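ARCHIVE CARD
CATEGORY: sequence design from structure
SOURCE FIELD: tokenized fold
FIELD CONTENT:
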């Protein structure tokens, strides 16, 4: 392979440098995107808040209201943020753990908190009591969100 000197070598170096810079910028921008995807099916549309955000996006947004990683439990150790998280798991095809497991995984053992304020548009259904005090009550949440009348007991 012939050695390149002069303007061609300089242009090749600039091309490589610009390519690396663009790649770095795109990678950094992509890492700033939300961790969760919106719900995959329109059958979950009742879970979205009035701003059109999925429960995954609302949960992530609420979690980001925490002042620091050390005080994360101050924001997420409550049934409202658990319900948002559980709804996110359901609408993305995952299973949702019970509140006890969620609390343990979030470092909430022995702690409780109120959901953070600060303009969060949290759907009303997220404030409903847990089913049997342990799990997200999808049925009750859907009835709350859609305004449909329920003629059976909500467990």
């Amino acid at each position: 392979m012939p050695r390149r000197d002069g303007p061609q070598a300089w242009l090749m170096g600039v091309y490589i440098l610009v390519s690396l810079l663009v790649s770095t910028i795109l990678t950094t921008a992509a890492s700033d995107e939300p961790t969760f995807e919106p719900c995959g099916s329109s059958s979950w549309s009742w879970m979205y808040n009035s701003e059109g955000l999925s429960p995954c996006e609302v949960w992530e947004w609420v979690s980001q209201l925490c002042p620091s990683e050390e005080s994360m439990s101050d924001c997420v150790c409550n049934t409202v943020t658990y319900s948002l998280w559980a709804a996110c798991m359901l609408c993305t095809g995952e299973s949702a753990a019970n509140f006890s497991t969620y609390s343990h995984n979030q470092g909430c053992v022995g702690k409780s908190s109120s959901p953070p304020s600060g303009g969060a548009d949290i759907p009303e259904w997220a404030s409903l009591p847990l089913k049997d005090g342990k799990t997200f009550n999808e049925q009750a949440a859907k009835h709350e969100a859609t305004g449909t009348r329920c003629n059976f007991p909500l467990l």
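CARD ANNOTATION: The CA atoms of residues 38 and 90 lie 11 Å apart. The helical segments are 7-31, 55-64, 73-76, 79-91, 99-105, 138-146.
SHELF: design records, drawer C
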